[in-house]
Structure formats: C-alpha cells, structure tokens
Amino acid sequence: MQIDTLAVRLRPRSPLEAADLGVRLCQDAARSVYPCFAAVALPVFLLAMASVEIAQWLPTVVVWWLKPWLDRTILFVLSRAAFGQPTTLAQLWRAQGEVWWRRLWLSLSVRRLSAWRSLTDPVYQLEGLSLGLTAARVRQIRHRHVWSAMLMTQTFMLTEAALLVSLLSLLFWLAPAGQTPSVDMLLGGQSPWLAIHGIPIAYMAAVFFVEPFFVAAGFAMYLNRRAELEAWDIEQEFRRAFPR
Fold first, then answer.
1. How far apart are CA 22 and CA 213, in angstroms?
2. How far is CA 185 from the centre of its chain?
3. Which of 31, 54, 80, 121 measures 20 to 30 Å from 132, CA to CA?
4. Count: domains in the chain
5. Residue 223: how many CA atoms within 13 Å on its side-chain side?
C-alpha cells in the first residue's frame, strides 16, 4: 500500500475517535458513496418488498440479513475515497467480482452475526489473503479492540432504531387533521396496508441513511489499527517530509 497517497491524515487515535474520522470520511465521499450504494440497495429493497406476499415480516429480515453484502459496495467506495479517488458506477461494475461475490457465503453465514463486523470486513475484502492467513489477520486486527468495535456497532444499531421510530412518527405528525392514524392501524388491526408496507419502508430508509456511516466508522477503526501495527503514521510523515 502506498502510504504517501492516503488522503486521510494518520496519527495515533483512540478507536472511537477513529470511528469519528470514518463518519467524516463518509461525509466527504457522500457523492460517490450514496449513488453506488443506491445502485445495489434499491433493487434489494424492491425484491425484499416483493417477499411480503410470503410473510409480513420477511422484507425486514431479508434486508437485515443482506446488510453484509450491501456493505461491500460501501467499503469499496470508501477504500478508494481514502486515497482521494472518487468512484463511478462503471468502476463499481467492473470490480463486481471482487466486491460482490468473493467469499459471499462467508459474509452471509458464519460472519453474519459478528458484533465487530465493520472492523474486520476490510481484512476479508481488501487484503486478498487466504482463509488461513485471513483468520490470523483478523485476530491481530481485533486484539484489544473488540469492545470498542462492539460499542460502535451498538451505537449505530440504536441510531438506526431511533431513525426508524422517527420516520414512523411522521405518519402521526404530518397526517391531515382528523385523519391521524392510530397505533392499531400501524400494527395492522385497522389498516393492514400501513402495517405491511409502512414499517419495512421506514426500516429500509433508515438502513439506507445509516449503513454507510457504520461501514465508514469500522473502516477508519481498521485503518487506525493498521497504523498502530505498522507505524503508518510515522511512515506517512517521513514520506511527506522527504518526497522522492
């Protein structure tokens, strides 16, 4: 990796301070992140909504389970943004083999319930190691950082839940006078359409907004950990002080 080309200024940071850096990186790269994310997320959302005919709860579960696959696109864009490179849909499409399909079975099975997934995902997706070396690398990356990664994950879960509740509350706040829906309508007693479609749509909207920041926070924690292990911050300063 060419450290001198990194657009992110490395210095010793606590894990949670690094997560804040990730949020800032996502804000700066939003013009690349959200169009690419939308290109893969919206078809998934539509297919998930089609499953409502099978069970009312299925669309939400499908989107939740496929989050690691959706995160791959976000991580690809952010990994380029860290070097100051914007990403287009054409570039994403050309890289689809590595981004979308490599070890997909692992992302959606044994690693799906990992509480530190956003910290270790860059190892699986970006480092290109064999499975044996990847396992050892993951242990090294998460050493003494598991609790910070879990805390960050819980924070974004609560943020997503808060946004979901806020979006549902708009049904009550913005309803015309005399037509305010009741909780019974929302839960499906009087208005099945509202319950069947309102909650999944609100959940998908919350995921679409929050998930890029979650991935970016974990990616920045990963970069911070690499800097700790390999003294990237010192190398970066030397390269900038003494350019070739």
1. 7
2. 32
3. 80
4. 1
5. 31
Please compute, for residue 75, the number of CA atoms within 13 A of its CA located in the half-sphere on the CB side.
Answer: 29
Tokens encoding 127: 């480092």
Answering whether pTM is above 0.70, one says yes
In angstroms, the CA 61 to CA 65 distance is 6
Type of residue numbered 95: A
CB count within 10 Å of CB 185 equals: 17
Cα diameter, the chain: 72
Give the domain extent around 45.
3-241
| Digit-coded pLDDT (tens) for 101-123 | 988 888 898 888 888 899 999 99
In tens, the pLDDT along 41-86 reads 999 999 999 998 888 889 999 999 999 999 999 999 999 998 888 9
